[in-house]
Amino acid sequence: MKSPYTGGKVEIITERQSVPFKGETFEMDVETLVCVDSKKRFTTGEMDDKFVDTLHSLWRERYKVPTAQQLKAAREKLGLSLRRMSTLLGLGINQYRHYEAGKLPKPSHQLLLRLLVNEGALSYILALQCDKVPKKTLKAWESYIHGEKSIIEVEHTPKVNRKPLIKTPVHEEEYYRSNNYKDIIEAGTSLEYSELYSAA
Questions:
Q1: Distance set, CA 28 to CA 15, 16, 154 (Å)
Q2: Are 74 and 122 a contacting pair, CB within 8 Å?
Q3: What domains are defined for the chain?
Q4: What is the pLDDT of residues 84-97, one digit of tens each?
Q5: Secondary structure of the chain in the HEC alphabet?
Q6: What is the pTM of this model?
């Protein structure tokens, strides 16, 4: 590459910098180009994109926020559209689309997204929002969780390899009917999605 200032040679330098972002500081290696003749510094669009991606990755790592790839995998695992996924989570119509495209989530949505990529927590979400998703999705998830199938197989969607078997959540319907959380915890009743199908 030639210098945009003199047409001469350029050098790449890498420096450890403290970068301010969202009111915090992140330590990271930053690359810049230096014009050998004028000593002026500059960057390319590719370098700027890499800088932003690295900074966002550090932020996600610090707050344990899922990546765009993880969010997409969670949605595809359920065979849901972007619009349906937003509805499931109680978000705006296009909100999940933005997060899956890489936009950093609002503070109020960070915990929800962390729960989404945890299979145990996802069972709770599906139980509470069973009227927001197709019955075929609930049935496929039930078979997956109970170990009846080693893949999540929702009709007309890609098959997804299963992870280690997990337990289904406590009986959410009973919890809201009795409003006695202690009794349900002691009973340790498993959620049976089939009881919810008729209501969905």
A1: 8, 6, 42
A2: yes
A3: 10-63 (3.10.20), 68-197 (no CATH)
A4: 999 999 999 899 99
A5: CCCCCCCCCEEEEEEEEEEEECCEEEEEEEEEEEECCCCCEECCHHHHHHHHHHHHHHHHHHHCCCCHHHHHHHHHHHCCCHHHHHHHHCCCCCHHHHHHCCCCCCHHHHHHHHHHCCHHHHHHHHHHCHHHCCHHHHHHHHHHHCCCCCEECCCCCCCEECCCCCCCCECHHHHHHHCCHHHHHHHCCECCCHHHHCCC
A6: 0.68
